[in-house]
């Protein structure tokens, strides 16, 4: 993994953990709802930042990092980021974004089922 990917991945993960801890301490929700919200907020912000950088023709967030955010729980924020910012919305040229959104949903759904509904 390149230096830039690692830096953005750690930034996204770090921001998610900080927001998760703040939510966890302030709410009485099940911890996983806090995690999903935290990672979704961060993923949404990362999609917005990347779109802004694209318009400025400046340094971009690697696609792998955006995929990682969706897979670790930020699939709702990633989906909203794609819609709101019209980011990577061409499915033919960016098919992996749809795949990772679906996979992130399936992973989280399976975890929720395993923890709560079984």
Explain this structure to me?
The protein is mostly helical and 118 residues long. It has one domain (3-117). It contains 4 helices and no strands. It has helices at residues 3-26, 31-56, 63-84, 95-117. Helix 1 (3-26) packs across helix 3, helix 2 (31-56) packs across helix 3 (63-84) and helix 3 (63-84) packs across helix 4. The chain is globular, with a radius of gyration of 14 Å. The model has no long low-confidence stretch (mean pLDDT 91).
What structural class do helix, strand and pairing data support? mainly alpha
Strand content: under 5%
Shape: globular
The total tally of domains equals: 1
User: Count the strands?
Assistant: 0
Q: SSE order in H/E notation?
A: HHHH
Average pLDDT taken over every residue: 91
Q: Which value, in Å, is the CA radius of gyration? A: 14 Å
Features:
mainly alpha, 118 residues, 4 helices
Write a compact overview of the structure shown.
The chain has 118 residues and is an all-alpha fold. The protein has helices at 3-26, 31-56, 63-84, 95-117.
How do the strands and helices of this protein lay out in sequence?
Elements: H1 3-26, H2 31-56, H3 63-84, H4 95-117
Helix pairs in contact: 1-2, 1-3, 2-3, 3-4
